[in-house]
Amino acid sequence: MTNILGGISDGVIDPWIEMLFKKILPPGLDILPDTDLHAPMINITPWNSEEIAEESAVRAQVVHGTLHTMNLTQNTRMTEPTWYQDVRHLVLRADEDIRYQPGDVAILHPENSPEDVETLLKRLGWEAEADKPIRITPSAGDRSLPLGYPGPNTPTTLRSLITKHADINSVPRKSFVELLAHFTKDQMETDKLHEFCTAEGLDDLFDYTTRVRRTILEVLLEFRSAVVPKDYVADLFPELRPRQFSIASSSSVHPREIHLCVAIVNYRTKLRVPRKGVCTSWLARLETGTVLNVGIKRGTMHLPRDDRKPIILVGPGTGVAPMRAMIEERVTRDATENTLYFGCRSATADHHFREEWEAYQKQSALTYRVAASRDQVPSLIVGSKTMQPPAEIPDSPPEVLPRYPEHTSRTQQLQEKIKEMEARIQAIEQRRGSLSPTTSSTRSISNPPDALSAVQQPLAYFDSPISNDSSDTHSTPPMPFISDSFASLPEADFTSYPNSGYPRIEVAIARRMAAEGINIHPELLRSMLAIFVHRRGLTGYKLHTGRVLYNLSASPQPVLALLYAILLAACHFTEDPELKSWESAILERTKSEIEANIARAHEYGGGEYNPLYHLQAMLILSQYYYFKSRMLEAHVNTNSTVQFAVAMGIHRLNSRSLDHYTTTVSPQSGLGRERWRPQDVIELGEAINLLWGCVARDLVGGLINGLPPSLSPEEITTVWPVSLSDFIKNSLPDDRHSVKELLSSDFSYVVADVSQDNAACLLIKALVLVYYAGKFDTERFSKPELTEEWWSRFRNCDRAIERISDTMPSYFSGRNPEEVSHLVLAHAAIDCATLQLHGALAEKELVRSAQGDLRHANTSAWI
């Protein structure tokens, strides 16, 4: 299975693969140790044939469908010369008729730059043989050549092989590092590569490669003792795959031609050398007259068959390419009910095909609106409701063509593959279980190994193991009466829990669980709840213990997902091996309960079902994954939790609008369903604290694995989190400003003194500043010139970091462990924000100084 997200995903997949092989390995076979060097995929021998066949530029097996020989007749820049991004308009012309439909894509096979290829050949010591003809054959009879490689009857050279088939500028995967370690002669380099491949070194590998986008070529230049045999070229270097681009022309308007609109990838990371896209940099250096082999693939976007139907197109940036093809095709058919919303950064700098849109508009063939996000004038934003002027939307239902992201979510692909494989393994286990005479067909795999012996003991906590048998029937016992006032008790009444336990509550919860097939003695349940209550702050937020216990015992429809999540956290923290044995079973119950009830939880105003408790269960589960160092699953689940919080509208809640949210009027969500509303200040406080717990975990996950946050702080108007006691007393000293005002010069006093903020609030403020500092870091390399407006925002961020750093409490005495951990993380986050904001800027100024160009240096930012 490939490494989807650099080293981070290996921390999730490697243990799972090890378990998989143990399950499916037939008896009598052993797994080869990782220290063994496997045989190469190919053999490279000198070409001895007298007849030299002409080498194919691109083999047909590389590209799906028929290849067309086309001539590059135009390669012009569409953006302004001073604009930071280079976008090209390419025109390819064939000598024969070609057929394609609007929405189809062109397939091109890129080549590595001659400079990079020469550098690699010299580094590996292959330059003397680089241009000699060679033959490539499979290393064994049961093997085939990698897809796209020249066959045994086609001569090639090492230089051609590296240029056209080896992706030497991709980010190295863990498999590359593992193989490279076999070829290093320096023991220190070998040890470092081995360390990268350990569970403890995966984070370092991610920082070294994926986070900064370091390439395979750059890694080889740093580990200079590696001597790689030529036969391992296919094993060491990934295949240089074809790239797909949406066709930006209609064959009816441009016969025998294919037009492309391509953004040249060129950006900066922490490394000094800019990062470049392999294919787009190749396209940028192509000269007119170059002959290319181009494939055509059926696209996913299609025009409606009925030309009388109006269409609405939304195309930001180069995403407008297929829209141009569709509009051209529609105009030739005299279909004029076309609406285009085009998004760009500047209406004068990167306004693609501007003259064409304006010409169509004059012909009354197009209704056209542009959204320029960086222009200093009021403009539309692509995707917002302001882009829907009612007067311009036709009365008849328009055909809104779907928008597809250029890159499918790799995280989603990984999760789907894992689920599919787990389902297959479970099916295999069930078949084996039914055939094995020593295995009971009714025993659940969730059953702890020692549960049966525990049942036989008179005073055992576990009355019976978990049962997943649908044939089991349980009659729900009568519930003890519990007053509603229990849910309004102050949090202080639970500080001595479980010493002053509530037996009726625990008995009621135990009976509720018995109805679900889980029999736990009330005393054991009391111990598990106590473990969670004492550790609940580690989940990133505070919850009202009375509300939770009331929900789990007296509510007509308790959220069982929350109960399972609480027990799961208790199983993780406990040191009792008997309780530990239940962890995997409780984890499965938690996940299945969340999945089964997610749709139900989205039904806002569900009456007896409160989605706030469901949201709490989701956050506890995501934090559990963090506890287990399962970073990918933690971040995926956190993203889902944040999106659920947004759907509930929590990111818009604050105490100043409490009356609005608790009114008898039923506010409607965008889906036309009633939105969830807090019923009192305690529930409001829990919701706000819960949202910020989600955001904190989301930001932490982004810092760990490099993924963007699912909800940026700018989108949140909810106030800073405050303690539940403040909400209960209706005293809200910190409930003043939203996150949007944090870095505003008009509200600079918001962060003037944070000495009285609670620890969770300090941690979140620090994480938000890390997020903003990272944005400045990205902008400073993407902007050709740093404007005064940019420097003004930079100084505001710098001032906010300085004031938080100066007033943040540094003493830990008198604080509980969770507060101490929050403060330590807050201090570390502020240090990260400082380095993030200033480190790369210093590097940029040093580069300018070395180049003798200090004209743009702005020393005022350092004052």
Automatic annotation (TrEMBL):
Q: Which GO terms describe its molecular function?
A: DNA binding; flavin adenine dinucleotide binding; FMN binding; oxidoreductase activity; zinc ion binding
Q: Which CDD domains match?
A: fungal_TF_MHR (cd12148)
Q: Where is this region: Disordered?
A: 429-450
Query: From which domain of life does this come?
Result: Eukaryota
Swiss-Prot/TrEMBL keywords: FAD, Flavoprotein, Nucleus, Oxidoreductase
- Gene Ontology terms: biological process: DNA-templated transcription
One Pfam assignment: Fungal_trans
Which cofactors, if any, are listed as required?
FAD
- Would the keyword Transmembrane helix turn up in this protein's UniProt record? no
Q: Where is the composition biased (Polar residues)?
A: 433-447
Q: Which InterPro entries match?
A: CysJ-like_FAD-binding, FAD-bd_FR_type, Flavoprot_Pyr_Nucl_cyt_Rdtase, FNR_nucleotide-bd, NADPH_Cyt_P450_Rdtase_alpha, OxRdtase_FAD/NAD-bd, Riboflavin_synthase-like_b-brl, XnlR_reg_dom
Concerning SUPFAM superfamilies, the annotation shows:
Ferredoxin reductase-like, C-terminal NADP-linked domain, Riboflavin synthase domain-like
Name this polypeptide is given = FAD-binding FR-type domain-containing protein
What organism, scientifically named, is this protein from? Rhizoctonia solani
